[in-house]
Amino acid sequence: MQLFNTLTRAVEPIIPLDPAGKRVSLYVCGPTIYNYGHIGNFRTYVAVDLLRRSLRHFGYNVDHVMQFTDVDDKTIRGAREKNLPLKEFTAIYRQAFLEDAKTLNIEIPERTPNATDHIPAMIALIQKLLDKKSAYVSDDGSVYFRIASFPDYGCLCHLDLEGLISGARVSQDEYEKEGVGDFVLWKKWVAADGEVGWDSPWGKGRPGWHIECSALSMEHLGPQIDIHGGGTDLRFPHHENEIAQSEAATGLPFVGHWFHVEHLLVDGQKMSKSLGNMYTVRDVLDRGYTGRELRYALLSGANYAKNLNFTWQGMEDAKTALQRIDEWRKRVRAVAPALPPPDSEQMEASPGVATFLRELDLALANDLNINDALGRFFSLIRETHKALDAGTLTPLQAHHLKVAWNKFDAILGLGDAVVAVPAEIQALLDQRAEARKAKNFSLSDELRKKIEVLGWKVKDTAKGQELLPG
Ligand code: AMP
Ligand code: ZN
Questions:
Q1: Distance from the CA of 231 to the center of ligand 2, in angstroms?
Q2: Is the pLDDT of residue 468 over 80?
Q3: pTM of the predicted model, to two decimals?
Q4: Same domain for 444 and 392?
Q5: Which of 48, 67, 233, 270, when mutated, tests ligand 1's pocket best, judged by the most ligand atoms within 8 Å of its CB?
Q6: What span, in angstroms and rounded, lies between the C-alpha atoms of 358 and 360?
């Protein structure tokens, strides 16, 4: 499998550190949990989910870690405004992130530590950097990384450090390239931090943002990782600083492959509160769309290495594309018998399907070209409809198509459409459950008929009533 590596600016094969070549370690910078994530953030996490599922498709075991940033200026300010302890405040948005990820059918990484649960690991790493003279305690009592001690500084973003004032310092976590300088590892406590602070050898304070990811990736995945991902804005300064901290401490190359997802724009513009175009997943649901439709729009609008322009027309297109897929699946299902899955040789009995599966592998292996795979899949859909209309699609071919869809959907993660149950039907179902409890079977039958007249079917199972579209 080949993936673009931002460090080398080339599409390169993934070569895991694991001697057996099976395990791939993946670290992805998680969200800062001071607010609901916007759909731009989720574009990045959907793209990471596509990477994760594709790695699995090619037989790798993915060991994926993503931290939640639950201490920084924004979380501290937010907690103070809401008058809540920091932990209680950030717990709300951690939960919200996990709910939104579920709405979008994003798989949750194997480990999702909160940064504040690992302060000792960060302190130990900072101490190591001090011992190696890669860091120093400044006169204001904070600890800074000395970028002059790391000759490779700027390797990821190809920074030209000439003319840099030696010893210039930045204490904020986020800054522009013009502000490059020694960056903060440990921030000395100030009154604005209120209750937030931990004891350390350098006095009470809190970690900088960059040290979190170096410490957490080392703690959970070891000194070196195969793939490190995040949105493109994290390249500078965050990932540049992660490389400096990790490599200065271990003397080893930190990351094999840097995976950066380009930004989501809305109507061609950068998302911002002042433009009123910053949407959360919840805002999109409030407009009547499903998580499945949003996932499809985020996946299919553009490949991960290109900007994605989000529009409401794009959401309508996603809805139409899903309806086409669902319609096709229904027709295929109606013909397909229940058979065990074929092996690849048996699949050759349906050459069109076998070709599609090969094309899918090629597209994914070529820097996750999901749009190419989708294009080829829609051709397969058109071919199937033609064969169904002509009555030439055999049950075995239908079975193979069903199997191919299951393989493709293990990557797409679209699943089945969730059918909303109208309130009127739900009320009849509730009455029927009561009737059955009271053993009033004639009323129960009468209610079943009413439900059927309204276009639904009800089945009685061991778990209770199951509702099916008629
Ligand atoms: P944050 O919570 O700000 O640290 O962001 C979480 C993730 O979302 C990071 O990987 C960011 O790079 C990414 N991100 C932020 N804005 C966008 C955007 N407009 N499009 C895609 N990814 C984004
Ligand atoms: Zn990070």
A1: 10
A2: no
A3: 0.91
A4: no
A5: 233
A6: 5
